[in-house]
Amino acid sequence: MHHHGFAWLGEKSEFDKEGVRRPAGEPPTAGSPQEVIDRYRQAVAEFPVSGMPPIQTAHWLMKPPSTIRGTWEEPKEAGEWLGLQLAEFAPRFASHQDAEATRLLLLVKSAVERLTWGGDVSLGHYLSGKVFHSAALVTCSPNRAEPGLPCPLDK
């Protein structure tokens, strides 16, 4: 078992486009409404190559290896990366309460505990302006939520 780190920074308006953040799923039928067909086509084209955070954290494993920001065998090492992500962006958090040092330390400690038993971690913060920052740690080989997903580095 190992852990991959993923991060995304972008406009909130892009993050809010949930259709791009979901895998395609089952193909629509011939009688499906055009909007369902269009959403399916968009998901097929964009989800697998987009660095946009998926709705379900485990689905990061469906993304290209180029989206991986780091890989660690030990949860503590992955937690250190998460702590660096939070420290880098905390001065820009829209909520000053979210940027409190004690809160950030507790988030990292909780993340390490979750990774220890095979869970995933996904954090997101609105930054000043209209920007959103997402950081995720995903347990791989196997993933607890989606054990059938292969490691993106094995592709």
Please summarize what this structure is.
The chain has 155 residues and is of the alpha+beta class. The chain has helices at 12-15, 34-46, 75-89, 101-116; strands spanning 2-11, 68-72, 121-127, 131-140. It contains 4 helices and 4 strands, in the order βααβααββ.
What are the key terms here?
31% helix, alpha+beta, four-stranded antiparallel beta sheet, 155 residues, globular
Task: Please give the structural blueprint.
Blueprint: E1 2-11, H1 12-15, H2 34-46, E2 68-72, H3 75-89, H4 101-116, E3 121-127, E4 131-140
Antiparallel strand pairs: 1-2, 1-4, 3-4
Account of the 3D structure:
The structure is a single chain. 31% of the residues lie in helices and 21% in strands. The chain is α+β, with helices and mostly antiparallel strands and 155 residues long. A hairpin with a 3-residue loop joins strand 3 (121-127) and strand 4. Helix 3 (75-89) runs antiparallel to helix 4. It is globular, with a radius of gyration of 17 Å. The two termini are 17 Å apart.
First and last CA, distance: 17 Å
> What is the CA-atom radius of gyration, in angstroms?
17 Å
**Strand content bin:** 15-25%
Which percent bin holds the helix content? 25-40%
Largest sheet: 4 strands, antiparallel
Decide which structural class fits the backbone. Answer: alpha+beta
Helices, by number, come to 4
